[in-house]
Design goal:
The complex is a heterodimer.
Chain A: E1 2-17, E2 19-21, H1 23-30, H2 32-42, E3 47-49, H3 56-64, E4 72-78, H4 89-96, E5 104-108, H5 114-125, E6 133-140, H6 151-154, E7 160-180, E8 186-187, E9 195-196, H7 198-214, E10 223-226, H8 231-240, H9 252-255, H10 262-272, E11 278-287, E12 291-300, E13 310-312
Helix pairs in contact in A: 1-2, 7-8
Chain B: H1 3-13, H2 34-48, H3 63-68
Classes of the chains: A alpha/beta, B mainly alpha.
């Protein structure tokens, strides 16, 4: 466990593309029986798909709109689908967002563990007195990379962008546990489609992730916010950690798996659904790498940190 | 854990209606696939500290077969 003090989550915001693909569309493509099975098995519902030409940076910068970026000394861009191999998308976003030349800007190649990994990186960076605030941007446009013939992955992921600001202040403690197990069970090879060994990934998830979470649980933890891999995985991991659906909420049927934007999306969705008050939470991200990273931190749902979800239209 | 509590958990793993789930329920009547098996094995490991190496779905016929292993 790695602990940090004096950090403050200042803002979290999400932008989703307007294009929606739902059960009726999936039935037309894959047949009612296949889709019915996926609905029962994993809670398949609706996903968001970006229009042709929309890049991951477009969604992420839309999420950053309206945030006060004063004092941002570092920009992390978290994605498995950056705009290009080079330059880094963080570099192009530094200019687009009007951040100063002195900004440290770098890409972080992470998927579903990306939000919590980036929070940890921000915590390390903010340990230096010269850095005042870290802007985390990210998201994915996985709809460009899945094989449309593969119903198991083509129905799973939502395109999305997110922004989060981490600053200093307060004496809240953040406790992280982070792990990586080099594996190609989830991969996007050069030129090839996204592929995933579902059974291997599920087996990894329900053994390693609950173990990591249990290492962070204290009696004060009152909610478990899980990366929304799919509804079955969320339920199983939550159950193994002793959390029911009221304290380990699931929004997968509404939004699908939004990769690194999944946890920011869950936070903003919970705020929109009326979650209030101060909570002690564990956030858990897990996915490609395979990487899994969880953090215990206080969340203030009264402080308007979690912004209304915005809809992106080019 | 009481049998009732274990059945609550098994209903969730099997995607089954809890009210209709009894030890006699055949697994052919619920979702008993490789994912459910892995979820069941994780449940055994986390709740009862028990590891069942090398089992397949075919090793279990009824909910009662699943219940029988739910002990330390």
């Amino acid at each position: 466990m790695t602990c940090f003090r004096g950090l403050r989550l200042e803002a979290v915001s999400v932008a989703l593309p307007a294009g929606r693909v739902g059960v009726a569309d999936f039935e037309a493509r894959y047949g009612a029986e296949r889709v019915g099975r996926l609905r029962r098995a994993i809670g398949l519902g609706e996903i968001r798909v970006a229009e042709a030409g929309v890049r991951t940076s477009d969604l992420a910068s839309a999420a950053a709109r309206g945030l006060d970026l004063g004092g941002v000394d570092a920009l992390l861009f978290v994605s498995q689908t950056p705009d290009a191999v080079a330059p880094s998308t963080a570099a192009t976003l530094q200019r687009r967002l009007g951040l100063g030349e002195g900004t440290l800007a770098l890409d972080v190649n992470q998927g579903c563990a990306g939000f919590t990994v980036a929070l940890r990186l921000a915590a390390h960076l903010l340990g230096h007195p010269a850095l005042r605030r870290v802007l985390i941007l990210g998201g994915d446009t996985l709809s460009r990379h899945v094989d449309p013939a593969d119903a198991a992955t083509a129905t799973l992921f939502s395109d999305a962008g997110f922004a989060a600001l981490v600053g200093k202040g307060g004496d809240d403690a953040w406790a992280f546990a982070t792990a990586t197990a080099g594996s190609e069970a989830i991969a996007i090879p050069h030129g090839g489609p996204f592929r995933m060994d579902g059974t291997a990934v599920f087996n990894f998830t329900i053994s390693k992730v609950p173990e990591q979470i249990q290492g962070l649980l204290t009696p004060e933890v009152d909610c478990l916010l899980l990366h929304q891999a799919n509804a079955f995985i969320v339920r199983q991991v939550a159950r193994l950690c002793g959390f029911g659906p009221d304290r380990a909420p699931c929004d997968f049927p509404d939004y699908g798996n939004a990769s690194s934007a999944s946890l920011p999306l869950l936070l903003c969705d919970l705020a929109a659904r009326g979650w209030r008050g101060r909570r002690q939470a564990v956030l858990a991200g897990f996915g490609v790498g395979l990487a899994w990273c969880s953090v215990r931190l206080p969340l203030d749902f009264d402080a308007a940190i979690f912004r209304p979800i915005t809809e992106f239209r080019p | 854990m009481s049998q009732d509590e274990i059945l609550d958990e098994l209903a969730d793993i099997l995607g089954a209606d809890r009210a209709a789930l009894t030890p006699e329920t055949p697994l052919s009547a619920v979702t008993w696939d490789s994912m459910a098996l892995l979820a069941y094995l994780a449940f055994l490991r986390f709740r009862f500290g028990k590891v069942l190496p090398g089992v397949s779905c075919a090793a279990f016929r009824t909910v009662g077969d699943l219940l029988a292993r739910c002990a330390p």
